[in-house]
Write a structure and sequence with these properties.
about 325 residues, alpha/beta, Rossmann fold, seven-stranded parallel beta sheet, two-stranded parallel ribbon, 10 helices, 13 strands, about 40% helix
Length: about 325
């Protein structure tokens, strides 16, 4: 499998939250060359300007939906990180684009990697592939449970399953090693506001720093599995350099955290004692309240030796420190 030190790696979606952290860890790990590809549809190069100051790192403006834009950057690459993807919430506004990005975009990345004889592709998937959460254990082999889910989220979940299926197909048909990493709610430095779970932390921070009370929807008892972005990036590098292939695995904390606890930790990190206010918008479409998730991370530990290192308490402290540093 590709060793990080001395290797060339391509990150498709390289200007994103996860992509920028993968790039940083690749450079820190001694990679010979790092190519960050992004179409900048959701932002700019601000997240990666500090990486581009390293001569080993280059940026290519390219789109996963344009196969011809992927060939040249992957020439001579040892491994590719397929990070680019369409998030669940925007699926409602543009399902056709979401399907294209998550399915055809993934296929294009795999095809370019196959053509350029790349050794391995590590794909960014989602624990959304399991759909609605039930009381049964949520293991790496749980099925998609989509009954009763909003249609846009059904489409999102199915598109991520298809992306994983394409990766497995390319492994079986062409010998291109492939692993899919299924993330829970990612947060951390360089956090954007498009991922709804992470944005709740940013919104709470902004209200506290503005002297306002943070807002919690409903009673705040709903839970989420939050995973720190540095741990996610480290999982990508461990997956790339491991012997493991042909599987998907959860990259999660394994800890259920309530929204009440998140706001409490953000408030504490801001050295404030302001109390939250609770609000329910009767006109807003809300997901069913989840009081338990219980995701397993057993396969990640078994196959690539990965476990999270940053607790929710430490991670939120880091996020608040970064937000303070970049607050306009």
């Amino acid at each position: 499998m590709p060793a990080i030190s001395g290797g060339k790696f391509v990150v498709v979606g390289g200007a994103s939250l996860v992509g920028s952290h993968i790039g940083a860890q690749l450079l820190a790990g001694g990679a010979r060359e790092v190519v960050l590809i992004d179409n900048l549809a959701l932002g700019s190069t601000d997240n990666i300007d500090f990486l581009l100051s390293d001569a080993r790192c280059t940026f290519v403006r390219g789109d996963a939906l344009r196969l011809n834009e992927l060939y040249d950057p992957m020439a001579g690459a040892d491994g590719v990180f397929a990070v680019a993807g369409f998030l669940g919430m925007p699926m409602l506004a543009n399902p056709w684009m979401g399907i294209d990005v998550n399915v055809r975009g993934t296929q294009n990345i795999l095809e370019a990697a196959r053509y350029q004889r790349v050794k391995k592709v590590v794909g960014s998937s989602s624990n959304g592939i399991y759909g609605a959460i039930g009381d049964e254990p949520n293991t790496d082999d749980s099925p998609l449970r989509w009954t009763g889910m909003p249609p846009a989220l059904i489409i999102y979940c199915a598109s991520k399953i298809m992306g994983e299926g394409l990766g497995l197909l390319y492994q079986q048909k062409y010998g291109l090693d492939f692993l899919a990493l299924r993330y829970s709610a990612i947060y951390g430095e360089r956090q954007h506001k498009r991922a709804i779970s992470g944005s709740q932390m940013v919104e709470a921070y902004e209200r506290v720093r503005s002297g306002k009370r943070p807002i919690i929807e409903r009673d705040g008892k709903q839970v989420q599995d939050y995973i720190y972005v540095g741990d996610v990036a480290r999982a990508n590098l461990m997956a790339m350099s491991s012997q493991a292939s042909g599987a998907g695995m959860n990259i999660v904390s394994g800890v259920d955290t309530t929204q009440n606890r998140v706001v409490e930790l953000v408030t504490k990190a801001c050295n404030s004692d302001v109390k939250p206010e609770y609000f329910t918008d009767p006109n807003k479409l809300l997901m069913p309240q989840q009081l338990k998730q219980g995701y397993s991370r057993a396969r990640a530990k078994e196959m690539i030796g990965w476990e999270p290192q940053v607790s929710i308490e430490n991670g939120i402290s880091r996020l608040v420190a970064w937000l303070d540093e970049h607050r306009s």
